[in-house]
Amino acid sequence: MSRLNLSLFGLLVAAGLAACSDPLTVQNINNPDRARIYSRPADLEGLISDSYRQWHQGTIGGSDYGIPSQARAMTWENASGLANWGMGLRASIPRVFIDNSRGNQTQQENLKDFNATQRSARAAADGINRMAVGHVSLGSPAQDARALSFAWFVLGISQGSTALIYDSAAIIDPYADLTLIPDLTGYQAVAAAALVDLDSALAWVDRSTAASGANGFPLPNTWINGNALTAAQFKQLIRSWKAMIRADVARDKAARDAVDWAAVRDDAANGITADLNVTMVTSPAWSEDLNQAYLYGGWHQAAQFLIGMADSSGAYDAFLAAPYAAKTMFLVKTVDRRFPPGDTRAAQQANSPALPPAGRYFRNRTGLDNPADNYQTSMYDWYRPQAWYNANLLGPYPVFLKAQNDLLRAEALIRLGDIPGAAALIDITRTAAGLPALTGVVTSATQPVPGGNACVPRVPQGPNYTSSACGTIMEAMKWEFRMETMYTNYCLFFIAGRGWGDLPEGTAVSWPVPYQELDTRNHPIYNLGGVGRTGGSVGKGTYGL
Length: 545
What we know:
Blueprint: H1 2-21, H2 34-37, H3 41-58, H4 67-74, H5 87-91, H6 107-132, H7 141-165, E1 168-170, E2 184-186, H8 187-210, H9 231-248, H10 253-257, H11 261-269, E3 276-280, H12 304-307, H13 315-321, H14 345-350, E4 362-364, E5 380-382, H15 386-390, E6 395-400, H16 402-415, H17 419-430, E7 458-460, E8 468-470, H18 473-485, H19 492-500, H20 515-520
Antiparallel strand pairs: 1-2, 3-6, 4-5, 7-8
Helix pairs in contact: 3-6, 3-7, 6-7, 7-8, 7-9, 8-9, 9-11, 11-16, 16-17, 16-18, 17-18
């Protein structure tokens, strides 16, 4: 075999030399030779600098069709009975499986995010390859290290995002031949690779700050639009992403319980200290997939099952006790300032101005009420960034909130037994919303939150789940997480909720690799999720569904 390979190699070399000596032989410049295309420094830096925008537009940006619209409907972040983008289909109880057959109802939605995250990963990996393997310099050691840190970051969040949603994907190795098509690997391995990528990003930030030459940090403010992140700020963002991927890749409660929470705590403790707001513009496209959130009365409404946890009137218990067919929307009376005050619907509508006052996230709708699933139909809309929407969806929009990082850190502290530390982090948003502080009051993981009959949140109680009681500090953390991170970052309610064990029985905990990709690879097509089926959550969730 060795002799055969050497002989073949000799023939290829000879053929190559003959071609070079033939004056009629010319290079085919139309061939997609990435190594040649990315040999020019300006083109290479352009590839790397645009890779995050590719990820953004393919996941949390772009049009509303994709995984987020489905995931929001599955996890009470958005309630809609419409078929558009699979919202009504995914919200239905009992849960149905994710149909991955050719021509299925959500075939484009299921494919969009897979393609986007794999493509942004490929772009970032190509950039690393040409710099590390092709030895292309952008101009100075500091500039090279800055670009490499950014490329490793995008590779990490791209592979991490794929692992958070799909059950498997290709792990892209930037040191491999650019023409190599890696096989599919399980999500655990993809997530582990993403964490290694993010460690590489951190290392290259440090190299950049120590390197000589111009064009090091801060990042140009067009790379993550509107953010000229310093080296320190960029490292904080990377650490927050590490905490998120490590915790949220878990598919069920047992897996989330087994997460390395000390590592999550340490990454989150060194994570972002301010919201990451991306400036949305039309050219080049930076956008946020929130059009559906503002098409009230059908495309969007707040899910009654979730927001009812704020109610102190007893209406939530009546809702829980009612048979499914008799469940109806009700007035949420609460001390939580994120909801409009008032003892009647008319009073709450009067306290729901066109633009929400500071700290108000929900309004009591004045327009048409359209039904969704009986667990979800409500008279409330989430309209926290209404002013941004009114400005044609342009300008800064939060995509990674400090609250998300703080509350993930709080979860780690609860699991590690530091109740006072967790309480202090939860109280940052909790007390701002008018809820009584946990600090100095809640001293154990099993103690109910303060507030008496007006406590928030109230959580359905087993075994029958026909009434509610004050939740624990973990439930208080989850409430703040849901209130503060709604419609930000990537499928947050879904990826956290499955690990908390909150999702209704049979909810798909992963999307299958889209059939278009499986067909291309000559792999068999498969489905995931559904009650009693492969890939569905097992047993009733935390809240009895």
